[in-house]
Write a structure and sequence with these properties.
By secondary structure, this protein is of the alpha/beta class. It has two domains: 2-166, HUPs (Rossmann fold, 3-Layer(aba) Sandwich); 191-311, Rossmann fold. Helices cover 27% and strands 24% of the residues. It has eight helices and 15 strands. The chain has helices at residues 17-26, 42-49, 70-80, 93-106, 207-221, 229-233, 264-270, 299-311; strands at 2-6, 31-38, 56-61, 86-90, 110-114, 116-119, 122-127, 132-137, 143-147, 163-166, 196-200, 224-227, 254-258, 275-279, 293-295. A seven-stranded parallel sheet has the order 5-9-4-1-2-3-10, sandwiched between helices. Helix 3 crosses helix 4 (93-106) and helix 5 packs parallel to helix 8.
Length: 312
């Protein structure tokens, strides 16, 4: 059996989440290949070839792959799918767009957001907002999987010596076209890969207070900013900062929850953090049930005091 990972990249750099997918793939199969779909994407292909556990990299390079539209990417995966027992994607916006198309065309059931590999045909995945774990056995000849990256350690980025093989690019499907991309630029670490996250909830009261209260603490800690769905829905923070079941799943070394009550959907996105610190004036807030350290206090008083202590 051979597993295929569909790499995520920006045509220049390999996305770090691909390294977590490699670890998952090595538990599914003895041999792991990586498919890089892009335009001018030789650099991420070379980076993939250095990953430990990868024996071959397939490079499909064509102008219509420049923006990695889901329809074209899925067609390229299907062109090589017949040689593989497992096809894995990171459980990101891109992976979640391409994987269902591949599964549908192959007429197989997709197993989403796996958190553990029990056997080559058996996987664990969370259900009911993470309150239960389902063990799923797939009898399909080709398993299409999306991988929750926070559940698998990243493979070593150096030390591998895989070959890079060019494959024929499929034709442009013409089903969609790239129009524009709006990217939020920030000096803060990227949320999904951050080791420290400072996250705020609706208790911040406004977008101005969200930034004024949390940003100094995040800068002091070298942390990424996060937000609960309630804070995002209230307009305090942009959508790309949302942590939770309908946002980003994170597992940093330190998660500081400020004014977050701890709704089940939010806990599903951050409860695997190594250390959780909660600041909330409500002693009955559910966030305290998962916190390693809890501070029952008004965040507008506690955070400035914490900041002063850190600056000493």
């Amino acid at each position: 059996m051979t597993a295929l990972i569909v790499a995520e990249h920006d045509n220049t750099h390999l996305n770090a989440l691909t390294l977590n997918a490699v670890t998952a793939a090595t538990r599914c199969s003895e041999e792991v290949h990586v498919l890089v779909i892009g335009h001018g994407a030789s650099q991420p292909a070379e980076q993939a070839a250095k990953l430990q556990g990868v024996s071959k990299v397939l490079l499909a390079d064509a102008p219509h792959f420049a923006d990695q539209l889901a329809e074209n990417a899925a067609a390229q995966v299907l062109a090589v799918a017949g040689s593989y027992s497992h096809i894995l994607f990171a459980a990101t916006a891109t992976g979640k767009s391409v994987a269902p198309r591949v599964a549908a065309w192959l007429d197989v059931a997709q197993v989403s957001e796996i958190t553990a590999v029990v056997a080559a045909d058996t996987f664990e995945r969370p259900i009911y907002a993470g309150n239960a774990v389902a063990t799923v056995k797939s009898l399909d000849s080709i398993k299409v999987l999306t991988v929750r990256s926070t559940s698998f350690a990243a493979c070593q980025a150096e030390g591998g010596n895989a070959t890079v093989e060019a494959v024929s690019a499929v034709a442009d499907s013409g089903l969609s076209q790239f129009v524009s991309r709006e990217i939020s630029k920030s000096d803060r670490p990227e949320l999904a890969a951050a080791k420290i996250i400072v996250s705020g909830g609706r208790a911040l009261g406004s977008a101005d207070k969200f930034q004024a209260t949390l940003l100094p603490l995040a800068e002091q800690l070298g942390a990424a900013l996060g937000a609960s769905r309630a804070a995002v829905d209230s307009g305090y923070a942009p959508n790309d900062l949302q942590v939770g079941q309908t946002g980003k799943i994170v597992a940093p070394d330190l998660y500081v929850a400020c004014g977050i009550s701890g709704a089940i959907q939010h806990l599903a996105g951050m409860k695997d953090s190594k250390i959780i610190v909660a600041i909330n004036k409500d002693p009955d807030a559910p966030i305290f049930s998962v916190a390693d350290y809890g501070l029952e206090a008004d965040l507008f008083t506690a955070i400035p005091e914490l900041l002063k202590a850190l600056q000493q």
